[in-house]
Amino acid sequence: MSAAEQLKRLHELQQIDQKIMEVERFRDEAPKRVHRMETDIQQHQAIITDREAVLKTAREERRAKEKELEEHEARITKNQERLMNVKTNEEFRAIQKENQRQKEMIEELEDQILRIMDDIDSAELGVKKAKERFAELESDVQKQIADLQAKLAQVEAELVELNAQREERLPNIDSTFLARYDKLRKITGGVAVVRVENRTCQGCRMNVPPQVYNLVIRNEEIITCPNCYRILFFEAEADQAAGGET
User: Fold this and answer.
1) Is the pTM of this model over 0.85?
2) What are phi and psi of 234, to 5 degrees?
3) Any idea where the domains of the chain sit in the sequence?
4) CATH fold for domain 23-171
5) pLDDT of residue 242
6) Nearest residue to 234 via CA among 4, 1, 2, 17
7) How many other β-carbons are positioned within 10 Å of the β-carbon of residue 104?
8) Cα separation, 145 vs 128, whole angstroms
């Protein structure tokens, strides 16, 4: 079998290997994508939990202030009863002064309770919006995960077919060419064979020197790119379509 035919078969093998790489990359990346989406869901759930905690704290603070308010009101009521039994002006003035102090504290507590009620309203709205956002996100993520799992099933079947195609071609490639190809794949990111189009290496997009180009177009031996070291493969039709010269 001619070197030209061997190079052509190497190029075909390269195309299959590239598809395999793409499929395997998708398959390997899919669990990471699922994990990122699940993490996003967990983060939004944490937002709800945090906002609910803020709301709970505000409600507890309101109840505490209301209880304190009731205690001050009870003191005023008790003082009013005491006024019925006072015997001296001094005692009367002392109770009145105490009631005034209690009323001032009540006013301050009422202001605080109003502010807390505003905080509660804001917190309730925050929880509501967070839950609405979570529901939307959860629905969207579940759909994405379902689509991804369906795609993964297709990918696994495609990978089996591609590997079968690869195994079918291996016996038809010279072992020397194949060994060189496998070695280059390891050091060039998986792409070992590239076309030369319009005197340009399609691997690194650098111009091929004229003397190298003249050897490549003969397709008589393995010629590598001086820049990226990939095996150069020439097809007259592809080169002409790209605007090159044979």
Assistant:
1) no
2) -115, 130
3) 23-171, 174-241
4) Helix Hairpins (1.10.287)
5) 47
6) 4
7) 11
8) 26
